[in-house]
Amino acid sequence: MLVKLSLNGIKSRLRDYLVLFSGLLTAAAIFYMFESIASNKSFLESNSLISSIVIIFHFGSVLLGIITLVYILYANGFLMSMRQKEYGMFMMLGANAQKIAQMIFVETFLIGFLATLFGSTVGIGLTTLVYRLLTEQLGMTVTHYAPVSGKAFLITTLFFAVLFLITAVMNASSITKKTLLILLKEDQTPVQVKRKGIFLLGETLLGLIFLSIGYFMMKQIVTFQLIGIGVALVTIVLGTYFFFHSVIIFGLSLLKQIDRIAFKQLNNFTLSQLSFRMQEYTRMLSMIAMLVALALGALTVGIGFRNEIPKMADAVTPYDLVLNNAQKIDQQKINQLQPTTNARYHQKEDEQSVYYVKEEFDQNPLIGHEYHQVGTYTKKKFTGTKLSKNSTAQDALREVELPEQKGKEIQFLSRTEFNALPQEEMVLQLIQVKRFIAQLTPLKQLAAENGRNNPSVLDDAGMSGLNQKTAAYQAYNTLFSGFEFMGFFLGLAFLAMLASCLMFKILSGAQKDAVRYEMLNKIGARRNLLRRSMAKEIGVLFLAPAILGTVHVLFGLKMFAGLLSRPYHQLWIPFGIFFLLYFLYYTLTVWMYRTLVLK
Fold first, then answer.
1. Is 478 within a domain?
2. Whole-number Å distance between alpha carbons of 400 and 326
């Protein structure tokens, strides 16, 4: 009988459980994806470049697991609060408390098991998609990859089973500790919302001070370093709490004092509703704001790392292609690249020296990097005159020479003196193209041909050395593509969880709100005004943590200034993705809330 009642209870709250289920399914799918890539041993052993990003996916799994635990605890807490009156009714009808606890345990664990099972199935498809995107971005062919991983499935199942076991025990325990009167009447217990103005003003100032300190520390993170991170973490968390507990409430009270705003349509009612909700939702909105910062930060930094790859490759060598012994290369292939720079320098060498024609460098100066400090440099042009007089400038030339040439003395001769040397003549050809990424494939092919002509430039794995920009690009791409994908999918997972938590919290109070809106309807408030009031109220609850979380991200990006040369470049891409999905959750919440409140 209790099982039948439990199933009926779930059916009556089917939409709420579907929201919980969708969030859990997303978390399980992404967790499986991370573990599938990171635990595929044969795949990693046969693709050494891919194996370098394994730690990134393991780190993503750990971070996702921590956030998932918080999400499960909050989500199940909301569902328990919505159904505890039903459990109280069961006890009134004679059900044993231990039986109720067993029923709750089975409900919680069953939902978690199904979410994990379906999530892992979705994760197989998601892993296949990510594998294809990852290999396409890395520009390589990988072998021994299988999206179906028994080890990843086992890890995912065990991890979520432990999470839901803990949650199920906590849910069952919380119900048995509550008295029957509390179960039946807790939702009718009045909430004390009256606060003295002086305390509200003090907390408002305190919240603004905490946020200001935190933002200042993040902005000056280079100066304060680890101390700044610790202070920022504490002050921003405290400032976020006081922002919702006091700052917004203080702002709402000021708006209520402005007659042209407060007495327009149902604004006074809406402002009062929001003032009440902000105190009740303080901890929830604070958590949502921090999750928004994590989700948006993960998306932004992930895409930011992607934008850094060409710049980091360019920092290794200013030339897109280096050809040693270029006399062996078909120049028709070079012409097809339509190079913007095509410098040819003739060489001769003996056991002690490498000889160049000085006039060739005067006509086409060598481009090199002049480094100032870590991560910063300027491009310089070195003429033959400067190279012949400056040994430091010659370092730029040694970067593009063959390994066996780098230890020899460099000498610059006139054309007549050079031609008089008896050694065999060689050509060093340096190429720059207009669009490096668009011409990456032919550049790789020519770099590979250069490696075949000059085996000494190849490393132990048979790859071209980092004096080739294509090799540097591939090395950085292999590493940072992992960060990009981890950031993207973690951002989506965080978004699904934070929006679901906020949705649960709003919908859990719908039954009590229905009474207030019914009273407004009876005294003549038009239905479209009621709908508009709901949209405004829920909009503020969604928008406030989103705005604060966005501000957190804008200041927090300063911490990545040492890793990203332009951390604020193309912010509209991650921000646009995030807020589009966030708006869809808002729209869904408004629709579900209206169906529950407006009969």
1. no
2. 12
Q: What angle do CA 123, 35, 303 make, to 5 degrees?
A: 80
Task: Judge whether 302 lies within some domain.
Answer: no
Task: With CA atoms as reference, report the closest residue to 489 among 25, 34, 21.
Answer: 34
State whether 22 and 168 are in the same domain. Answer: yes
| Tokens (6 digits) for 20 | 């919980």
Give 216-227 pLDDT, tens digit per residue: 888 887 777 778
DSSP string, 442-478: HHHHHHHHHHHH-GGGB-TTSPBPTTSHHHHHHHHHH
Please list, in sequence order, all residues whose beta carbon lies within 8 angstroms of the beta carbon of residue 588, skipping any fewer than 6 positions away. 503
Of 49, 68, 17, the residue nearest 497 (C-alpha):
68
47-51, 103-107, 244-248, 418-422, range with greatest mean pLDDT: 418-422
Cα separation, 570 vs 565, in Å, equals: 13
Per-residue model confidence (pLDDT) at position 499: 80
- Which region among 55-64, 312-321, 424-433, 441-450 has the lowest average model confidence (pLDDT)? 55-64
Q: How far apart are CA 424 and CA 407, in angstroms?
A: 19
- Give the 3-state secondary structure of residue 45: helix
One-letter amino acid of 458:
L
The 10s digit of each residue's pLDDT in 290-329 is: 888 878 887 787 777 777 778 778 877 888 898 888 888 8
Q: What is the per-residue pLDDT for 131?
A: 65
Q: Which positions ≥6 away from 239 have C-beta within 8 Å?
A: 207, 208, 209, 210, 211, 212, 213, 214
On whether residue 262 sits in a domain, the answer given is no
pLDDT per position as a tens digit, 256-282: 888 777 778 777 888 888 887 777 788
pLDDT for the residue numbered 49: 47
CA distances from 493 to 111, 292, 299, 488 (A): 18, 11, 11, 9
Average pLDDT over residues 67-79: 69
Phi, psi of 520 (to 5 degrees): -65, -35
- The domain boundary, picked from 467, 489, 509, lies at 467
Residue pair 374/358 in contact by the 8 Å Cβ criterion: no
Given 467, 482, 509, which residue is the final one in a domain? 467
Q: Is the pTM of this model over 0.85?
A: no
| For residues 432-460, average pLDDT | 84
Residue range(s) defining the domain that contains residue 106: 1-189
Quote the CA–CA distance of 424 and 350 in Å, as a whole number: 9
421: CB partners within 8 A, 6+ apart: 348, 355, 413
Residue 540 in tokens: 């503020």
Q: How many domains, in total, are found in the chain?
A: 2
| Cα dihedral 274, 276, 282, 284 in deg (nearest 10) | -70
Q: For residues 491-513, give the mean pLDDT.
A: 76
Residue 11 domain-assigned?
Answer: yes
**What is the DSSP secondary structure assignment for residue 186, as one 8-state letter?**
G
